[in-house]
Specification:
This protein is mainly α. The protein has a domain of 45 residues. The chain is built from 3 helices and no strands. The protein is extended and about 45 Å long.
C-alpha cells in the first residue's frame, strides 16, 4: 500500500496530498476487489456494486444534479473510448 512520506513540505502530519490519497485509495480498492474475487464474487457483480456504491456516495456528497452532470461526462468519456484497454503492441503494428 502507498504510504505518505516526509517530503519536507508544510502539510500537517497525517495529511496526504491529492496524489497520495489517490494512490492509497487505488491500492485499497484493488486489494478489496482481489479479495472479493478470491471469496467467489464475480467481476460482473463487483462492477455493478462498485458503480452503484459510487453513484450513491456521489449523490450524498454532491447532490443529484451535480452527480447527474458528472455521470453525463463519464458517459461521454466511455463512448470516446477513454476506459477501453489500449491495443496490444502487435495490434498497433498491423
Amino acid at each position: 500500500m502507498a504510504e505518505a512520506e516526509d517530503t519536507g513540505d508544510d502539510k500537517p502530519p497525517g495529511k496526504l496530498s491529492d496524489d497520495e490519497q489517490k494512490a492509497v485509495a487505488l491500492d485499497w480498492f484493488i486489494a478489496m476487489w482481489n479479495e472479493a474475487i478470491k471469496q467467489g464474487v464475480g467481476e460482473d457483480v463487483l462492477c455493478i456494486m462498485a458503480l452503484s456504491a459510487t453513484a450513491s456516495k456521489l449523490v450524498d456528497r454532491f447532490g443529484d444534479e451535480q452527480t447527474a452532470e458528472l455521470l453525463k461526462s463519464v458517459r461521454k468519456n466511455v463512448l470516446k473510448g477513454q476506459f477501453s484497454p489500449a491495443p496490444a503492441e502487435e495490434d498497433k503494428e498491423a
